[in-house]
Protein 1
Amino acid sequence: MITLADAKLHLRLITSLEEAEAYTAEDGLVQGLIDAAYDHAYQITRVRFRPSTETLVLDGFPSGSESILLPWTPVTGIDSLEYVDPEGVEQSLDAEALRLDARPIYPTLAPQWGSEWPATIGEPESVTITAAVGHEHTPGDVRAALLLLIGHLYENREAVVVGTSASQVPLGVEILLAPHKIHAVG
């Protein structure tokens, strides 16, 4: 993860990590730029490059033991799975009852071998899955792209820049993120 101190050092607001706590004048701005850079990387690649918690709400389980396609990558674990049973009572499935396959681009969740999904009430939003998502450590090329973007956003704080000629940096943000991009079909 890119920390506030890392970004301040990259932006040359400080000259050493030891100075990070002393210089706080632009912490809100810099943290906002870090967040924006991570969000931009997600929009381009559809990969979460920092840990987060995500929720998926479904109108029921698939039939039998069919897998649920999770819309995030990477998924590191299932925090909870709650559902409303046919009597209208909220229930939980323990992690031991679930089988997470985190290998594919979009991980899948299924009941353990030899078991099936439980029945749910015939109402919308009857299943809620909460998952731990994202890389624990930002890959080096993605980190470089994020720092480039943070620097660009810091230096160009307005929507329009007057009186300058602009050019894109070779091997810039998009090129560094390209190997991580998940291409969608359909």
Protein 2
Amino acid sequence: MNYLLDTLLYAGAFIGLLFVLVVIHECGHYFVARFFGVHCPRFSFGMGPVIYKKVDKHGTEFALSAFPLGGYVSMITQKMFEIEPELKKEFTEEQLKKTFDTKPKLQRAAIMFAGPLANFILAILIFSFIFSSTPDPKSIIVIDSVDDMSTFNQGDQIISIDNVNVYERKDISLELLSKAGMTGQIAIDVYQVNLDQKKTITLDVDNFLTDSKQQENPVSALGISIKMRSLPIIGSIMPGGAAEKAGLMVNDKIISINNSGIFYASEISPALNGLNTNFVDIEVLRGNQTNIIPVELNLVQNTDGIQSRLLGIQFGLKRSFFASFIKGSKETYNLSVKTLQFIGKMLTGNMGTENLSGPIGIAKMAGDTAQAGILPFLYLMALLSISLGVLNLLPIPALDGGQLTLLGVEAIRGSPLPDKVENFVYATGTVMIIFLMVFAVFNDVARF
């Protein structure tokens, strides 16, 4: 029974994921096509036999099809009428004037670009929702352990790689992966907490991260392991608690407790419970000024009779939706650039193609994240939406990027390519996509 439920969950998560991503993509094409006056005879939600359909006042048939595996938008063209003149009978005189290929090149380019753009917008909105729904932990990357030959020191904070700031585990992994195959120098800025100073460590690398096993954990190539530690910045204050009574405020950064330095949020509770008094002096950084605030701690006892001293604060700042939107936009941009870089590194052989996932791999990820919760599932949806947007912009003829490339060629030549050449180009692009899909499925089978 559990196996059946798991199978249904994984299948449902995969179908739902694919349906949303493709339909959003097609919505981009549809709305911009309509804006520029191109007639769209059908917008199909799903594929296969039609279950339900409705025609709007513009003559577009909105169809719900049997298999919810994506969808498509059709647009009328002069070329389709040249091939099948009988099709003209299905449209009004007004609709026949609204063909895609008679529109100016910039309008056709906008229609093609709108699909990937819709995927990027979806990713921004999903990231914005996730960031606004979760507190900002104000955390930093800390070196947890080092190898014997490492030039790093345990406890140092990693700030940036080649002047690109890193804030989370994925940031440092993505930045290192973007340098796969590199020969040269990598500059890593660290903050040495004990010495209160910044230091730049320069690493000489040769064919960096070309081993696929290293690419699974790129940080290990530096000879270190890392962990995330939250900074002691107050995110919220419990009403009636010791912190509120003493006058501590949200955004205060705790620097010391009774003159003992505090660097991370996890150090506060042990420091308080190691005292033999309920009265403490807490030094905080508020704006650009430091203040020493006397606090009378609350003493509580749990069911086991163990007493604890509580300050009455929590860490993690709530983001505004505007701040979340800005962060979501930056995240989408950065991941789009990294996706393009990784595709390039796969083509040059600097990154293993075994990282490429097909439908089986995506279905597994969809099911795993669905089991983990709505936010992980949405995060995966945003990642795949970015991937779909980037992949569709590649100059492969059967994709949006290929059509944009052909429009560029048409602009340079002053006329479209001959039909035979164009058909050959599209056939080649289709073969490339089929080969890519087969290869991805092979990877999935080999992996799982």
Protein 3
Amino acid sequence: MIKKEQLYDELCLSIYNTNRYFHRLYAELLEGYELSYLQYMSLLIIYKKEKAKLMDIGEELELSSNTLTPVIERLVNKEWLIKVPSELDKRVKYLKISESKRPVFEHILSDVAVVRDELVVASEKSVISMITENESLNKTLRAMILSHNNKIEEKINDEL
């Protein structure tokens, strides 16, 4: 009989490996375009929204601006993105995929669609059910992180 601890360790390892496999698969798709997985995900968010602020991308990816700023700057330097001033406040800059790179990105999306379709056919579950289960697990993990952070803060405050 397998102990609960072993099953939990297997779950953690499985999720870790799934993340690695997705990164490896996308790295193969993206290497010809000299894009990282995080650059691709940032472009995808901007593509879906037409234009986005750095803060919008950070919220979607749950990453800080400190992490995203160099990623976005590289995309601007590679001419994937352009910065467009807001019509309401010129200090605010929106990010938009450059017109010359839009067809290239759409080609990447078609390559990703082929891989996605292969995964759907090979999987025993629907994509919707996989996403639902994953989002449920992520929600639980985020709640646990918040709970643990609050306990640590309380402990620190008690010691002061």
